[in-house]
Design goal:
Elements lengths: L2 E4 L14 H10 L4 E5 L8 H12 L5 E4 L6 H7 L2 E4 L4 H10 L3 H9 L4 E4 L1 H5 L8
Parallel strand pairs: 1-5, 2-3, 2-4, 4-5
């Protein structure tokens, strides 16, 4: 499996994703991923559009296109066609609830087991674990 998991998205006093930006963009480039589906479902204090914009600005990379899954009518198809999956942090239980409501868990598991790159931080890294019981 091609996983890049981080416990958080920022360090105090630094811009969002700054400390892991190079690792994320290098990981995606190394795996030939340019079309990234972002899953913002862990957000609870801001909108999915705001979260998507924050991630795009934080990574600031012209070689990748990040599109939040909430823009897709067929979210399973978006996961199937994605070159990489990126899952942001926030509330792990909210994230898992939305993943279940949109029937995405099994297709994400399958794609990751098949070798698609997966990037997750905070709740997004929890989603990659066998359970979120320890979050």
């Amino acid at each position: 499996m091609k996983l890049l998991l981080s416990s958080n998205s920022s360090l105090q006093g630094e811009p969002y994703l700054h400390f892991c930006k190079e690792k994320i963009t290098t990981f995606l480039a190394k795996n030939g991923a340019k079309q990234i589906v972002f899953i913002p479902f862990a957000a609870v204090t801001f909108s999915y559009n705001e979260y998507e914009s924050k991630v795009i600005k934080g990574l600031d990379n012209k070689n990748i296109q990040i599109t939040s899954i909430h823009h897709f009518e067929d979210q399973q198809k978006a996961i199937i066609e994605a070159e990489a999956i990126m899952v942001g942090g926030g509330n792990s239980f909210q994230l898992l609830n939305e993943i279940y409501q949109n029937d995405l868990l099994e297709i994400i598991k399958k794609r990751v087991k098949d070798g698609i790159p997966y990037v997750g931080w905070s709740a997004g890294s929890n989603l990659a674990c066998p359970t979120i019981k320890t979050t």
